[in-house]
Every structure is written in C-alpha cells, then in structure tokens.
Amino acid sequence: MAKTDTLHIVGGGMAGSEAAWQAANMGVSVVLHEMRPQVKTFAHRTGNMGEMVCSNSFRSDDDEQNAVGLLHWEMRTAEGLIISTAHRHRLPAGGALAVDRDPFSEAVTKALTDHPNIAISHEEVSELPSEGHWIFATGPLTSEKLGAAIQTETGADRLAFFDAIAPIVYAESIDMDVAWRQSRYDKGETEEEQKAYINCPMTKPQYEAFIDALLAADKTEFHEGETATYFDGCLPIEVMAERGRETLRHGPMKPVGLTNPHKPEEKAYAVVQLRRDNALGTLYNIVGFQTKMKYGAQASVFKMIPGLEEASFARLGGIHRNTFLNSPTLLDAQMRLRSKPNIRFAGQVTGVEGYVESAAMGLLAGRMAAAEILGRSLPVVPQDTAHGALVHHITGGAEAKTFQPMNVNFGLFRPLDGLRGGRKGRRERYKGYTDRAKDEWSRWLATQKEPA
Fold this sequence. Notes:
Layout: E1 7-10, H1 14-25, E2 30-33, E3 57-60, H2 67-77, H3 81-88, E4 90-91, E5 96-99, H4 101-114, E6 118-121, E7 133-136, H5 144-154, E8 159-165, E9 168-170, E10 180-181, H6 191-194, E11 197-202, H7 204-216, H8 237-242, E12 270-276, E13 283-286, H9 295-302, E14 313-315, E15 318-325, H10 327-330, E16 336-337, E17 340-345, H11 355-374, H12 386-397, H13 426-446
C-alpha cells in the first residue's frame, strides 16, 4: 500500500483508539498521532491511549432495555477494541460496565502498539492538512493551536468551546392535559411552525416556589481549566434568578403571546417553553434552561414545572468546557468535513457525549475511512441501529440552531408501529428497538465480510 494511502488519526482517546483498531483490522496502514505525554492536558495523567479522565464507567450493559447497552452489543459484535477491553477489565458494578481504569488504558495501548498495521507518533498536530486521509478525534480537550485551526476552517460560530446545555425531555412523558402546543403569537406560516413549542403554564405561587427551589438547589463548581465567565446568551437560569426574582419571567419564562386552550380565560403568570430537538419530534429541550445545578437537584426542581411532574429526561443540563463542532452543518453523512473532505471527525468533538458514544463514532469513522482508502463501497449505517441513530442525529437529524452534545437514547430512534406509548409500554417498546437494531446491525456487518 502506498504511503498516500496511510490513514492518519489525531487523538488517542476512545474514538481515536477505536478508529485506528477498526481501520488497521481492515488492512489499512494507520499512524495514530497522540500529543501526550509530550504535550499535557489539565485532565490527563498519562500518555496512555484510552485514558479515562472522568468516570470509570461505560454505563449500562443491558442490551435489551438500554440504548447504551445496545451500543455495547453492537460494538462487541463489530469486534470493537474499547468495549472488548472493558469487559476484560470490568469491576463489580451491578448492571453497569465499570473498569479498572489503569489496566484498561494500558491494555488498549498495548493492543494498538502491538498491531502490525499501526504506528504511534507523539508529536502535536496543530493544523488541518489539505492532503491525505485524516480522522480528527481530539475530544473535549483539543489543544489550543488545533482548536484555532478548526475554528478558522469552520467559522467562528461553528465551533463551541463551552456546552450551554438545556435539559432534554422525552416528548411522551409530558402531560399534554396541562401543557399545550403553540408558538408565541402563533408565529409561522404552517400549522407545524405555529405549534412548534410545548408550553407549561405557572401560577404566581408556582413560580415563586420554583424560584425558591432554584436558588436553594445544590450547584456544581467550575473545574480547573474552565472559566466562570458566562456568555450572556447562555446564562445559567440560577444566575438569572439571582439577578432578581422576576428576571426569568421577563426572559425565557415570559408568558406573553400565548393562550392556554385548557384554561383560555386564565392568564399564566409565567410559561416554560420546550422546543423540538430532533426531526422525529420525540425529544424536546427546555428553552433557555442551561444550568449548573447538580443532576439530582435538576430532576427535582424541573419536575415542579406543571406538565413535567412525571417527565423523563434524555439529558440533564450543564455548562462546561467542551470543544465540539456544529456537526449538522459541517459534516456529511460519511462524517467528512464538507470544506475538506479528506478529513473526518470522530468522538466527542462531533457532538456526542460519553466514552461509549465517542468510541462508537470512532468505530464508524475508522471503517468509513478504511473503506474509502481500499476502494470499497461501505453500505449506509442503518438508522435503526444505535450507531446509525447517533450518526444520523449529528449529521442531520438534530436541529442545527440548538445543537448540543448528546448521549445515545431511545428518543433518537424511529418509532415502531403498533407498540404502546408512554411509561406503561416502555419495556415492550425498548425491547422492540433493540431487537430491530440487532437484526439491522448484524446484516450491516455481514455485508462487509470479504468472501472466503
């Protein structure tokens, strides 16, 4: 194979390690560029590949009732390095897949170092090359120089250095006997646009109790390497509340331009709005509700909102340092940068959240890049698989204007006909999603096996 057919992968975290493993196993020559330990980050301790800098958990291993567990299953079936190594170094953790982190990363490093098709380079890559085959999987701790190069290429407004995450609710868990669909002042040319928001009304006593709970809730502090300087466009709701008890009512919770069809004669004192967050309409984000409250406090406080008393959250809110692309506008379906198609992105920088999701996007990027180098046709990843649901979300299924990092969850899956909705039908529905995904994933993998 000519040197021009070498695949260069930048970043030795979950995504980069998995991408290198997958491409090398397909017969492609790989150079894995990891700047550590020569160039350090504030979070890493070693120069090992696949180092776990936060939790030591890969979360649920239940492949029948949990979307993360389904992702585990798909990765195992694809002979994924990260998930197979995790299983060899697992610790007792109930239904979760937790690992002994140092032996885990040492084993990942050894597997990559020993692979005959993989070379490891420890210099820093600080530019986006115009030639060659590249995957950038640098994660939330992308170096300052490389971050600047990505920002120059993609545009200043297409690369975020902070999450300003509003909580996301499963649509089916919202009580529509209390809430209603309406855009403010019925704006929009179509009925869909005029009913683009779900509205949850509050009386004055409910609003006052909500503000009290918000101000009293436990908050998280910024970590070293982050900053406590907020952007005015993404102020945490508790910071707004601290500026005055009426601030939220004149900001994201203003009640103007809305009429409650359940109580048309009663004017709401405040209104919490939720906006559709995916093309399927299964997920809604709480508008303007980015927060630094701790997760337990968030669930408690947000369930005080009328209509959300029984809400299930696909994601809770937060604000923290996290370099990520506005992938729906920048990446094509093959995870290539539209302006430089010789470059793919993978992992958290694409807007997925978590170790498992990062490794999964590395798995896909590695296979896609290798197939391109080898001149093979790689079938489209089925959307009804966990991998397919995630990659579809980041490359077009998400709303670009409100795009924020996302964990895999069943809200990203296309609904199954004939299954009961709501909480009572959840177990049967989730089993239906996982059965369908396993069939689709197995067929997709089978198409890539070379004839004997």
